[in-house]
Design goal:
heterodimer, A: mainly alpha, about 0% strand, globular, B: Ubiquitin-like (UB roll), 2 domains, two-stranded antiparallel ribbon, 7 strands, elongated
């Protein structure tokens, strides 16, 4: 017997975890700004040194393709749910709902984010650097949307680790499920604070 | 003389399966230990709304009146529960009653529960004892798994977990928590385990266990305290192993 649904769902779950790893690297790179604009420019410069014939296949094959699959199949999954956190206001049900709300936001946010900062800048030849990002994020609307985008991605990923443990049958009993949930939410809070700090560097005269 | 204490119900009604829902308010005298089914019986005796209009009596289902048959499940103050053990004194007034719209509504609070029987058929919720073989003394139950099976056997297909689950409903083909726990119960039975692979394969198909979104509502809604999320995780484990078998056995 070969159940395509089963393998698609499990693949969706695995790809989510893989993209979470990418998110961690992305946050790690962005955090260079906490050490000052020069450090940030150095990190961007190092990435720019990678030749396009290596960089483009990585970006398309290891980032765009998994994202596309996760997003498209995710839309199908999200449409199967009728969120009911008002009637059943339990913590885990709120997390379930937020997992879907953050997904919708991320779908729009990531198209905008990737289009502008990865495609538009390359086409028009804008050189990505701290100073460019600083002027871009000086628009308070953009800044807020970017912070929300980061928080949405972080919640979606950390809560995803939590549900991954249930979906794969790793965490079975209620106690271990609660322990993993709290650990994931702790990680979520820590990463949210960290990204808030790095986003503040762009608008506050710290350096 | 002091005014008589009363209880107010706001009931969501619907005249036919395709009819438009509307609400009506009923007021009846309070009495000690009044529950929702008893209150509905009072309304049936005298179907007059709060503003004095005589209406058709409210239709609902009930049977055992002691929380073992599951028939009187409805949405009381927003939460799916058994009407027979919903004590009026423990509910916030006015008490809102609504049908469980996860299921097709037939009339008022009466729902079509056929899907739950179909679900049990889908997971092969039975033990094959009849066949061309000789019937012998059955193997002994492992006392440890028997305790788990006993817990799951309390399931009365009331549908509370299905109503509470955000992934079960007309918008989705998810089978829901209770039949998945039932599949586990039959899988740990010494005779039932012969058909374990069939049940797991049925649960790996579209709308099976993979549609679970881990909202955790089912375990909170279950009036029988069945540890549904635990058994869902266990079946998730079992289908992973079954998937490996499916790949490497064929």
């Amino acid at each position: 017997m070969f159940n395509i649904t089963f393998y698609l769902r499990r693949l969706h779950s695995l790809v989510g975890l893989f993209m979470g790893a990418f998110l961690m690297v992305h946050i790690g790179n962005n955090s260079a700004v906490l050490l000052g604009p020069d450090m940030m420019n150095m990190v961007i410069g190092t990435m720019d040194k990678m030749p396009m014939f290596i960089r483009l296949p990585i970006e398309l094959g290891l980032i765009a393709a998994p994202f596309g699959f996760h997003a498209l199949y995710g839309v199908y999954i999200a449409l199967q749910a009728r969120n009911n956190p008002i009637r059943y206001g339990y913590l885990q049900n709120w997390q379930f709902t937020l997992q879907r709300w953050t997904a919708w936001y991320l779908l729009v946010f990531l198209i905008w984010h990737v289009y502008y900062l990865a495609i538009h800048t390359r086409i028009t030849g804008i050189h990505l650097c701290f100073e460019f990002l600083q002027s871009y994020l000086s628009n308070p609307v953009y800044w807020v949307l970017y912070v929300l985008g980061m928080w949405a991605a972080i919640f979606h990923f950390t809560n995803g680790i939590n549900t991954f443990c249930m979906t794969w049958g790793i965490a079975k009993g209620p106690r271990i499920q609660m322990v993993i949930n709290m650990a994931c939410m702790g990680l979520c809070g820590a990463l949210c604070l960290e990204t808030l700090a790095l986003m503040l560097v762009y608008i506050l005269p710290i350096f | 003389m002091a005014l008589q204490k009363t209880v107010t119900f706001i009931i969501e009604r619907q005249d036919s399966p395709t009819g438009k829902p509307y609400t009506q308010e009923f007021e009846l005298p309070w009495r000690p230990a009044l529950n929702v089914v008893a209150a509905l019986m009072e309304i049936q005796k005298n179907p007059v709304t709060k503003d004095g209009k005589r209406v058709a009596p409210v239709v609902w289902e009930c049977n055992c009146l002691e929380k073992v048959c599951g028939a009187c499940m409805m949405v009381i103050n927003g939460k799916a529960q058994q009407a027979c053990c919903a004590l009026v004194d423990k509910l916030k007034q006015p008490i809102h009653l609504a049908p469980a719209r996860t299921f097709p509504v037939i009339r008022d609070l009466l729902i079509d529960r056929t899907v739950m029987f179909e679900n049990l058929k889908r997971i092969q919720g039975w033990i094959n004892v009849d066949g061309t073989w000789e019937v012998r003394i059955p193997p002994r139950q492992n006392p440890n798994t028997a305790a788990t099976a006993y817990e799951i056997s309390h399931c009365m297909t009331c549908g509370c977990c299905l109503e509470a689950c955000p992934n079960v409903g007309p918008q989705s083909d998810f089978i829901g928590p209770s039949p998945i726990a039932q599949a586990y119960m039959y899988n740990i039975n010494p005779l039932g385990e012969y058909d374990k692979a069939n049940r797991l394969n049925a649960l790996m198909a579209k709308g099976g266990i993979t549609s679970c979104g881990n909202s955790g509502n089912c375990v909170k809604a279950c009036p029988k305290g069945i540890k549904l999320t635990t058994y869902l995780a266990q079946i998730n484990r079992d289908v992973n192993i079954q998937a490996l078998k499916n790949i490497f056995d064929h």
